[in-house]
Amino acid sequence: MPMVLSVEQVRRMRGGAQAHLMRCDDGGYYVVKFQNNPQHLRILANEMLGTRLAALLGLPVPRTEVVEVPRGLIELTADLVIQLGVGRTPCRAGKQFGSRFPGDPARLTVQDFLPDEQLREVENLGDFAGMLVYDKWTCNTNGRQAIFFRESGDRAEAGGSSEAGDSASGYTAMMIDFGFCFNAGEWDFPDAPLRGLYSRHRVYERVAGMEAFEPWIARLENQITERVLGEEAAQIPPEWYDGDWNALERLLERLYRRRERVRELILSARNSGREPIPNWKVKHA
Ligand SMILES: Nc1ncnc2c1ncn2[C@@H]1O[C@H](COP(=O)(O)OP(=O)(O)O)[C@@H](O)[C@H]1O
Ligand SMILES: [Mg+2]
User: Beta-carbon neighbour count of residue 117 at 10 Å?
Assistant: First the structure.
């Protein structure tokens, strides 16, 4: 299993999992979630499986990696602790989950939220429709979360594309935080109409019907086979789900069967009466 080694803690990140930004020996920076995070051990398994499945659907997600955090680094870094209600405990050493920061954090500004007007400048806004397909499928019980940044021509890992005009480009959205897919540590699927939506409904502005979701539904139906699910699950370090293979197997079986329910789940959001998809009008008979 490929793995990177963390060499330095950079800073603490916001959020309930108490992740840390860490520099690693491959030259990259990763947002690292620890096995003893305050949410649940399985958050790490969800992140690894969830991010990889989203990538298979063609959605914009960070690269993921198993990050080895040495005991010595934790002992030397006073900030590498999990804060509890009362007191604190050191972050656990060993294999942790890493979500790659999309550049050099000293030079690339990453935002958690954009004001509504700037959402218009997001070049891949259509991906939020694809993400709803994904979040309904996996029953993400947290709101959809994304980060936004401006691509610049000098990005080291932009996949080779630094076309002229890049520096003047708009924002790119990248989907993050897969910890609450499959309902966090529960691995059940408590579906509800408004679950999995992005809080700014403007991102669905261009959606006028089910057609907007079909490209991702097609990938889900055609590409996510039982074999693919098994291959992706095999990438998860077993200590992230306590070696409970049976539970993982059941999770995969349910995911496989749920692929056929996505249209119905999206319709329940649209018909909820809250109009989360503002331009997809409910036609009254
Ligand atoms: N790959 C990434 N690149 C840049 N920033 C990230 C990345 N992943 C997470 N973050 C940042 O770290 C914060 C915490 O990550 P998140 O996955 O939301 O954890 P939590 O489960 O604690 O909410 C996010 O709000 C975001 O700002
Ligand atoms: Mg979060």
Answer: 8
